[in-house]
Structure formats: C-alpha cells, structure tokens
Amino acid sequence: MKTLLVGVDLTGKKFSAERDNYEETYHLCLAENLEVVKTIRQKRSTIDPKTVVGSGKLKEIVKLVESENIDLVVFDYPLKPAQWKEITRLIPVKVIDKAMLILDIFARRAQSAEGKLKVELAQLEYNLPRLTELDSGLSRLVGGIGGRGPGETKLEISRRRSRERINLLKKKLKEIEKHRDLITKKQRTNKIPVVSIVGYTNVGKSALFNAITSKRDALVQNKLFATLDPLRRRITVVDENNKHWSYIISDTVGFIRDLPEQLYEAFKATIKEVVESDLILIVIDASDVNAYQKFQNVMKILKDLGVDLAYTLIVLNKMDIARPEVVQEFELLNPIKVSATSRHNISLLKNVIAKKLFADRRSIDTHHPKTI
After folding, report:
1. 292: phi then psi, degrees, rounded to nearest 5
2. What is the pLDDT of residue 367?
C-alpha cells in the first residue's frame, strides 16, 4: 500500500525528540509492510485546530496523493475527532493517525482470545467519537489499515450498539482478569516469584526472553510490536546443595511514545502483571542514540504505575553493536551488559536474577549455575 507520512515539527520543542517520534511512526509503517513513498514535515509554532497542518500544506498533500497514486496518509500527530473528520473530508483516500496505526498492528498480531478482546475494545473506544452513520472518512477505514481485526465489522454501527459492545467486552475482560488474579494468588501462595521483561519496542526483549529460557517460542522480528500477548515460562535453578528454586519470567508488550489512553486501559492486565512482578528487567538498546531518554520515559511510566524501582534491574542489550557513547551514559547505573543474539553474559544475567530473588533464602553459586 503506497503511503504518505505526514509529520509536524513544533518550534520550541526539542527536535531530537520530534525526530525520534517521527522515525518511530515511520518504523510502525514498516511493521505494517506499508510502502512509504513520500514524507512531508511542516514546521509550525502551533497546531492548526482544524487540520493540524496549514491549508497550503494540506493542498500539497492532496496534490501528492493524486500525482503519486497514494493509497494511505498517516499523520504522526494524534488527530482529534473533529480534525480527523475535516482532513478526511478534504483528502480523497484513507487517513489515519499514529494511534490508529498502532491499534491496527495490535489487531493483526493479537493471538490469544484475551488479546483479541482487548484489541476490539481499544478499537471501539478510540473510534467511538468518530462514529457517524454516514461518514465517508470512517467508511474508508473498514477493512485493511486502520480498521483491521476483531473490531472491523463494528466500526460503522451506531453509537448505542458500540457502547453496548464496549460494556460487554469489559465484562468479559473482567472475568478473564479474575481468572488471572486466581492464578497470581496461587503463585503467591506457592511463593513463585515473577520476573517481567519491559522496555521500548524493538530493544530485543523477545530475543532476551528466548536466551534466558533457552526456548524459541517467542516471536523475534526486527519490527515494532512483534510481541503482543505476554509469554510466560517457569524457570528452575539448582543451587550447590541440589535444591530447586523456581520463578516465572514474562515477556511483555513494548512501550511506545504517545500510546492512546484507551489502549493502556485495554491492556491493563499486561500492565498490572508488571506492577505485581517481584523483579523487572528494564531492557535498553545499546545501539540506540536515544536510549537514555527512552529509559527515563520507561522509569517515569513505571513510577506512575506505582512500581517499586528498587526491584528493577537494568539490562543493556545489543552490546555486539553498541554505541560507546550510549554505554557511557549508563555506566553509573551499573547495568548488566548482554547480547541476546550472541548470548554474551546471559549466564551472568541469570545469576544476578537468581541472586536478587533468592539471596535471602539460599546460598548462590555465582560461578557455576545450573538451570533446568
């Protein structure tokens, strides 16, 4: 699908942050196998309240759509319902924003019944303000990018029926959450610690999960949002006295900039799982020039969620292709430096995890660990 990517640079904001956000949207397009044939960025002091970009730039977009046979226009700036409706009235092809693109990726890649319910709920909640019976812009969303997945047949139904469906989905998800809570309580009763892997998309969380568990079940792709449904595995370590100690390790969905509030709510169970973890591995991409800023964002989100930051462990991944200046930024934080692909220092990481979880209950052999 031939795609035009539209970005906005607001004066007074750090350009590096805006560029990172723009590049993230670009990589999201690639994750959806979109062919980005043209990109447009406009510098503005403020966002146009009607069309985000100025009227002149919008006319330029319309001309490009016609001359380049563009099928899809993606805005990296979140479009308010009124803005989206006005833009879709003027542009003759499908128009979506970054949030819609993220929701579409979730819809296409969610595997479990729970994940599909969450996606449908997020789609309905996000599109509810945009629902009208005879909206040409919304009708162009049905099927494919911007309207894919479990919720696509629900996109043009009435607001009343949308709300009814939203309430039903919430009830179903509450039942699933109750079941999850029972499992969690059972784990707590059995005193099985939980370790969660978190971090931005594409930092190598799934590859690290595979390296730690010695499994190949987690999907490893160089695409954003490759992992949607959290994977969980039980790890058993054996100490020098041949005593067995177990913990659960979980691979979670990645953080991303400007994730819509509705999507956070829809994926509350995943976030809740992180909050209740005994140890959180914060994975950082050592080859990313913006790694430290993203790390600070992750820490802020964890803090806002009420996570005790004392129970976190910083893992600097991709050391085989690391940037020296990035590694230097994290030196004072004493990260564990690993490479999930080459398995460099994976044994060390396992030892540190075991020590943090079980040091008060057993003697740790940090030189010759055994994992089964």
Report:
1. -70, -40
2. 40
| Length of the chain (residues) | 372
Assigned CATH for 2-154: 3.40.50.11060
Q: Which residue has the tokens 């009607």?
A: 50
Return the amino acid letter for 30: L
pLDDT at 159: 76
Distance of CA 282 to the CA centre of its chain: 14
Task: Tell me how far apart the terminal alpha carbons of the chain are, to the nearest angstrom.
Answer: 46
Helix 55-67 and helix 81-90, axial crossing angle in degrees, nearest 10: 50
Closest CA to 100 of 111, 92, 88: 88
8 Å CB contact between 337 and 327? yes
Packing angle of the helix pair 113-127, 98-109 (nearest 10 deg): 160
* Cα distance between residue 285 and residue 260, in whole Å: 24
Degrees, nearest 5: CA angle 302-304-307? 45
The one-letter amino acid code at 327 reads: V
| The pLDDT value given to residue 61 | 95
Structure tokens at 24: 């993230």
Instruction: Locate all alpha helices (DSSP H) within 91-204, ordered by sequence.
Output: 98-109, 113-127, 136-139, 159-189
pLDDT of residue 102: 83
Which tokens in the block code for residue 181?
Answer: 């809570």
pLDDT in tens, 126-157: 888 877 543 545 555 555 555 555 444 444 45
Q: Fold identical between 2-154 and 191-371?
A: yes
For the chain, where are the alpha helices, taking DSSP H only? Answer: 15-31, 55-67, 81-90, 98-109, 113-127, 136-139, 159-189, 205-213, 261-266, 268-275, 291-304, 324-330, 346-358
Could you list the mean pLDDT of each consecutive 10-residue stretch along the chain, which spans 372 residues? 91 57 81 89 90 93 94 91 91 91 78 78 84 52 52 55 89 82 65 88 89 66 51 82 85 72 60 80 95 90 82 96 97 96 94 86 44 43
Answer yes or no: are the C-beta atoms of 59 and 82 closer than 8 Å.
no
Whole-angstrom distance, CA of residue 272 vs CA of residue 278: 12
Residue 198's SS3 state is: strand
Choose the CATH number for 191-371 among 3.40.50.10140, 1.10.287.1770, 3.40.50.300, 3.40.50.720: 3.40.50.300
CB 84 within 8 A of CB 97: yes
| Cross-strand pairs, 12 | none
Domain ranges of the chain: 2-154, 191-371
Which amino acid does the sequence have at 114?
Answer: E
